[in-house]
Amino acid sequence: MPFIRVGYLEQQYGDKELPIISQCIMRALREHFHVPEDDYFQVFHAHKRSEFYYSPHYLNVERTDKLLYIQITLGSGRSRDQKKAFYRRLAELLAAECEIREEDVFAVLMETELEDWTFGKGIAQMIL
């Protein structure tokens, strides 16, 4: 049940790259968190320079303007090892499929509980 938001600096990614980025994220989620293929909810946000900030050297990671912020809200329950493997695979896929530097892949997982979701109709489908 992940909901994904991806932020990036405008003009850095376009109609060619965004579908590939989307599929890479879903592939890593399916491989490491066993997310069903049709559990697919993503939004992409291009930001003006005045809306997009980052530290180019924090924790000795050299970032560029190609930085992707990937925020994934999902149900809790994944192990630390699963999360580490997911982050690694996500960076590998984006590097291989989109030529995005691994240093420019910034991801955060935000865990929620089943009752925190509705997929429409005002119903908490995950706790019926």
TrEMBL record:
Gene3D superfamilies: Macrophage Migration Inhibitory Factor. InterPro entries: Tauto_MSAD, Tautomerase/MIF_sf. This is Tautomerase family protein. It comes from Paenibacillus vulneris.
